[in-house]
Design goal:
Blueprint lengths: L1 E6 L2 E4 L4 E9 L7 E7 L6 E6 L6 E3 L7 E6 L4 E6 L8 E4 L2 E4 L9 E3 L5 E6 L1
Parallel strand pairs: 2-12
Antiparallel strand pairs: 1-3, 3-8, 4-5, 4-9, 4-10, 5-6, 7-8, 9-12, 10-11
Length: 126
């Protein structure tokens, strides 16, 4: 079992930056798995933002964040990150970093996410 805690969210002006962190703890080492960042805006469906494979050699992004967000990980620290630049008001959402237990990453199968944390709120003022 793994526990995930997201942090680093806050309120920024449009064009600003934030760096989200996702610290993992528990008996499962996330270095065995891909990690994802997803977000959910108020009243909307949860949507995929980015993912990174187990060793950090491959990254995948939703079209709406390409060139603005960068996902990374430090397996020695059991932590994943999401650097968000040039934030827009439409990026306002709660951001989650679940473990990607299967699928995704060009496998042809949809990703299967689990071990959800409580998320980190990101707000962007115009």
């Amino acid at each position: 079992q793994v526990q995930l805690v997201e942090s680093g969210g806050g309120l920024v002006q449009a064009g600003g930056s934030l760096r989200l962190s996702c610290a993992a703890s528990g008996r499962t080492f996330i270095s065995r798995y891909a990690m994802g960042w997803l977000r959910q805006a108020l009243g909307k469906e949860r949507e995929f933002v980015a993912s990174i494979n187990w060793d950090g050699s491959r990254e995948y992004y939703a079209g709406f964040v390409k060139g603005r967000f960068t996902i990374s990980r430090d397996n020695a620290k059991n932590t994943a990150y999401l650097q968000m630049n040039n934030l827009k008001p439409e990026d306002r959402a709660v951001y989650y970093c679940p473990v990607q237990y299967a699928g995704g990453g060009g496998s042809g199968s949809p990703p299967e996410f689990g071990s959800w944390g409580r998320g980190s709120q990101v707000s962007v003022s115009s």
